[in-house]
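FW: tagging you since you asked about this chain on Friday. Here's the raw sequence from the shared folder, copied in full. Didn't touch anything.
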Amino acid sequence: MAEKNLDFDKIIDRRNTRCLKYDFAKRRGMPEDVLPLWVADMDFETSSYIEDALIERAKHGIFGYSEVQTPYFEIVRDWLKIHHNWDVQERWLVKTSGVVFALAMAVKAYTKPNNSVLIQQPVYYPFSEVISDNGRKVVSNDLYLGDDNRYHIDFEDFEQKIIDNKIKLFILCSPHNPVGRVWTAEELIQLGDICVKHGVIVVSDEIHQDFVFRGRHHVFANLKKEFENISIICTSPSKTFNLAGLMMSNIFIPNRELRQKFRKELDAAGTSQFGIMGLVACEAAYSKGEEWYQAMLAYVSENIEFVRNYVRENLSNVTMTDTEGTYLVWLDFRKTGLSVDELENLIVHKAKLWLDSGKIFGKCGEGFQRINVACPRSILKEALDRIKAVL
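HL: got it, structure written out here
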């Protein structure tokens, strides 16, 4: 049986399907008729092999407590080995209901109330939320935009923030959301060496690891043996195969003591087994989804180039930051001269677009907008045409 879901130009009506992206605009303070390109899920049908596996499991008719056995691990292991050259062991694996949940558990497991946790803004906004909502303090080693139109790390500031704030936990975003950087091995090693030197645990959110268009994704724990000992590596098929609603993530913690502390927090949160459909989908994705994945990746890459060319040719006061990874494009509107509120009004109420405002990623994100390009190109063009019209 061949893969059937390879038409990424096909527009699928997601309205009235309890869809967070399309059905909750009014509840979230947006006009009801906005075009949404905000939350990081795709407007593509997932692999037909995943659909078939879920339908077949649903036909069984019983949905009791479920767990996986060694074949599940072997499928996940093979994907990580083939695509990222990382050898993992079964005892390292801890399943959670999502990466953000795992980040929250890590904050609780490895820090105490009022401790400081280090992040690198502008960054995925739940990072700061799981820190502050758990009574910890957010400290940011802000990334800076270089003359090469790529974001970079201020390593001197990174180490100084660790020293000054007695940091024991750092949450890394790799590849980086929203700025689209795929960190080099040299950059990650420099970060890791500083963390080892100061006894800092690294939680590496690598959920976008399968979206790399330039360079190569390096699993943080795989770069040095010393890094393996301080790492919590967060992975999931949810972004790669558009399965976010099935709530399944695979977290790898090689260090036994760190793993035990993490599991203790899971127990305290009352979690045990996870939904059978997420487990089934993960197995089908990693074992049979390669053709769909490669086709989707090529389409998203073309979308990124489409945006790059469109912005250059049509939006004279807007700059697209160089995108090396993820399907999220970071647009710089600062040269328009608009204030943060004026930009928000322009995008939401004049262009009738629901993007992610840069301000939610940290103060250094003000003046930017994040746009999700994992959608049919006609929808993407419509969104860009709306921006052009109001500018």
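FW: The chain has two domains: 20-46+290-390, 54-288.
HL: agreed, and The chain has a mean pLDDT of 97.
FW: great, closing this out.
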